Every structure is written in structure tokens, then in C-alpha cells.
Amino acid sequence: VRLLAAERAAAPARMSDALDGADRDASSTSDRPAASSLDTVLELERFVDVDDDRAVLADDYSNDVPGSSELDLTSKYCRDCHVASQRLYHVAALSRVCERTLEDDVGAFPIDLIAELAEDDDDDVRRSVAEQLDRFAACVGRLSERLDHVCAIKLLGVTFMLIEDDREEVVSAAEQTCGAVASLLSPEKQRSLLLPTLKSFSESDEEEIRMSAAKVLGRLAAVVGVEMTKSDLLPSLLNLASDAEYRVREAVASALSDTFEILDANDTLESTLPTFARLSRDSVWAVRATCAKHVVQLVRAVPTDRMLDVASETFEPLANDVSFKVRTAALEQLGQLIFALSSVEVPTIFVDYFTSMAESSTSSSALQETCAYNLPGVVLSLTSARWTELRPAFRLLAASLNWRVRRTLGCSLHEIATIIGRDNAEKDLLPVLESFLEDTDEVKIGVIEHLSEIFAVIGSASRLSLIRLLSTFESEDAEKIGNWRIRFALAKQILPVAELLSGAATAEFIVPILLAYLDDTAAVVREKTVEIAGRVLFNAARELSWYSETIVNAMSSIKLLATSHRWSDRRAYINICLALAREVEQRFVVDELLPLLVMLAEDSVAAVRVALSHFLTEVLRLDPTYISLPDISAAIIILKADSDPTVVAAAQSMKAEAEAKVKDDAAFTSARDVRFSPTGL
Questions:
Q1: Best CA proximity match to 671, nearest among 570, 661, 680, 546
Q2: Residue 311 CA: distances (Å) to CA of 209, 290, 315, 337, 357
Q3: pTM across the whole model
Q4: Number of neighbouring beta carbons within 10 Å of residue 218
């Protein structure tokens, strides 16, 4: 700071010298005048003039007043900092500082500072204040035990001031947070302060103010409650529905949907439905499109016996509107509308509208995406009994030229399969699933991530057919990293799929994939495979012996990890052995796993020795009699003399604990009868 201040103090003299030097160079040296001028400009641009009365660097406040609180310093930055970006940072942090520092003194709440900042010349500062109004309100509510505190009333005044701001982003932020401020007022103050102000806004000559009034009236319905909504908010809102400006009517159409959640079904039917229906026939397409976006909320809000009538009367005209944007807005809500009507018999005409979205041309493929996204919900609403009505749309979506449509459909195949049942899934979904597995990576990964859920629905014959296709994935990208996310997604599915297959099928199809992924080029794939390897091998051995040819060959491949040149492979071998030790009989652990494990006690990499220490600790916890094996004791002695403190600490504790447990518990006798001879070293 002192260096920068010194440079600023010397700037005038240096500027003069630079200009004089440039003149002298220009007169004496004719071959480089341009370079001198450029150098001078670059030198001059390093310095900025500031008001001497306010020329205080932001960092100078760090030692301003001894004992100043964090809130005091933040307030000073907000008021006096001349660096715009740093000042904005502290303004944006003001609510967090209040939450951290103000514990029980509401009088210390900086309401006056907030009011000053709300009138600041900087648009970003006012926007930041507007965005924090809800957090300011929460802070006041926490500090004050009663409603209508003076800070709450002043904060409401700040909110109204920001709603009348001339910047759209400031107004929008204030509109979204006004409900939190209004909740600090009692019903009496809401009637005397809040509602009259909003009514005056709704009668303003400015279109933007009336728009804000409509939006705020809708958002406040949940705050003021049913009675005040019916007596005060709704009349003002319905009056604005006849406003001459279409943007105000558009705001009303959206705000009415907020009242649907507050009013009971009959009030919605009698009070708001006529106005909403009139707006849905407005002469301006934007108003009708807004109504189309809120048809679902309307249908959910009316009595059950009128839902279908209201849906038909409101939706069908919008779905056949002359405006493409209105039709699109209506159709985008159709999936949710059908789901909302699931308590009644959904008419065929609605299903036809839905399937027509799948027939959309490539120019309107957004409708196809919407159709694919909503298909599981529609299938659930119509149940498997009406799957035949949706099958043509499903096939069209599966054949879409837009990969986003196919990806969306692929991500939901498991949900559809669960709903329509085994027979329909095997007949209609499996061919699509197999084609998606050969599709682009974006489509393929969505299917792979839910394979086990699809396997749980289809029969054993179909599972074998599908698993044969998956077995071809192991050879892809064998020599390069490729799309590792595909292999990682499949690695996460290996174990749940193996649990649904027979042991023989697991050994034939899943174990080769497992072994290939243990040597994958991507570390994340290898790590996930190591995590599940023990359980997969255990599942494969359910119907086979651990000494069968398939399992023995698999174990031989896994043992190669113990002598790999990569330390991560050697550690992986230890982790796989630990998983197996939890599942298999002790004889297999001693004969097949320990010979190579104890050799790793002298590994050159500390991480491998740490992993071995953890293995021995866990194994001795499971069966302390392992300590009677000479090679286990020898390995512990080596680890106790290790140079790594983590290894030493684990080794020093494991032997003492194991010997104590053996003395206390006579049940642990198995290892005493096992003769251990390390083979394969």
C-alpha cells in the first residue's frame, strides 16, 4: 500500500518527465518516434486520478479503528470504498456479515445503511441489495421476537423503493424477495401498510409499476393467507386482468396461478377461473401462452369432479391456437396435465395430442424432447393397460434424428420397463435398448447407468442375450483412454447385474469384463472395479467351486497385480484380498492370498505397505488366530520397523490386540489347525 501511495505521489513529476523526454526523443532521434510515444502512453495508463478527499485505499481500513467489528468495517467499505468491484463485494456480503455477527441486538441491524445503498447511483449495488432482502428479513425476524419491528417496517419501505427502480434486474430481484419482508408484519400492518401501497401500485399510470403490482400480489398470497387474499389481493389482481397493456395482463395470468395454491377448490372455480379463461382467449398471443404454461396448476386447483371439464375447456383451444408459440407452450404442459388427471379416465384426445408431439418434424424437435421427458409420467398415469396407445410414440422417439431425444428416452427406459411389465418390456424395449447401446456415447451412457434396473424386470433368457452384448464393451478403447465415463458407468453396474445372474453366467460374461477393467487406462475405472471385485467373484463362485477352472484362471489374473510394476496395482491386489477375506473360508485365504500378500510388507512404496497394514488389522479383527501364522507375525515385525509412521502405528497395535483377543476368546481356533506354507513367492 505504501509503495502504491508513493508511486501515486510521484506520478505528476514522472508524467511531466515522460512528456519532456518524449519531446526530446522526438527532436533528437528521428528513427523511433512511434516507439517513444507508445511507451509514454503505456506509462501514463498505469496511474489513475482519484478525489483527494476520498483517496483512501480499500486495504487501509484493515487497521482503521482498533476494536472495530466485522460489521463496522463492512459498513465502512460499503460507504467509502472507491474501488467499485471491491465495494460491490462487500455490499453483496452484508447480509452474511449480519447473520454471523448479530446475535441478539436488533438495534445494531444496519437498516440505515441498507436504505442508503438502495438509493445508490450504482445499478449493481441496488441489485445486490434487492437480492439480499430475504436474508435481511430473516435476520430481522431472528433478532426480533415480535412482528412489526421498526426495522421490518423500514425494510418494507426499502423493498417498495426498489420495486419502483428504473432498472429491470433490480425490480425483478425486489419482486422475488418481497414476500420474505412482508412476512415480518402482522395482519394489521399488512392491511394498513402493505396492501394500500400495492393497491396504489396497481392504479399507477406507469405500465411497469402495474406489472410489478400484479407479480407481487400473486407472490404475497401465500404470505397474507386465504382471507386477506380473497378480500384484498384478488380484487386488485382481477382488476388488472382488464388492463389495456398486454404485459400487465400477462403478469396477471402468471400471478393467478399463485392464488390457486392458496384458495380452496370452489373459490378457484368461482373467483379465478372465469378471469383465467378470458385471459386464455386474449387477443395477444403472449398472454395466451402464459395461460398455457399454467393450465396444470389450474386443473389441480379445481374440484376433482370438474378437473376433466376444466382441462378440456382450457387446454384444447390453446393446443389448437393459431400461434405456434401458444400451441407449443400448451403441448409442453400436456405430460404434467395427463399426470394430474390420473385420478380420472384420461380421454383419448389428450393421448392423441401427446403422441402427436413425437411426430414433430426436426424443426420442432424441442417438442420431441418434451415428449420423451414426460413419457414415463404419462405411462404411469395410463398404466400398462394403455401401453398400446403410447407404443407408436415410443418407437418414433427411439428413431428420432435428434440425439438429445434418444438420450432422454434412454435415461428413462428402466422406469418405463418397470411400469409396463416383463412381457411388454422384452417385446418393445429390448430392441430399442440394444440399439441405444450401439448409439453415440451420449445416448449409450444413459442406458448403461440403469442397466441393473432393467435386468430386474426382464427374464433370465433376455438377460443372457443382453449380457452377451455388454461383453463386447471390454475390448473397446483397449489401447487408449477413450470415453472412460462409459466404462466407469458400466463398472458401477457390474456388481448389481452380477447379483441378478447365475454364478455360471457371472463367471462367463461378467468376470472377463471385471478383469479387463482392472487393467483399464483410466484410474477411476480401475478403482471402482477393485471396490467390487471381491463381491463379484464371490457371486461367481456361488454355483462353482473356488478351485474350478474359471475361478482359478480369474484368480491367476488377479495375482498378477501383486507383482505389477504399478504400485496402484499392488495396492489394488491388497484391497481385493481384503474383500475376499470377508467372504470366503480361511483355507482359501491362506492358500491363495497370503503368499503374495506377505511379500508386499517390504514393498518400496509406502502406500502399499499402509494398505497391507490395514489388511492385516482387518483380518486380525475378523479372526485373531491369524496371528499364529508365522508369516503373518513376520510381516508385522517388518511393518513395525518401517520408516513410515502410519505403517508403524498400525503394526504396533494389531499384534497386541490380536493376542489379547485370542486369550479372551477360545472360539477363535481355526488358524491354529492350518499349516501355512507360502507358495508362489
A1: 661
A2: 33, 16, 6, 8, 18
A3: 0.79
A4: 25
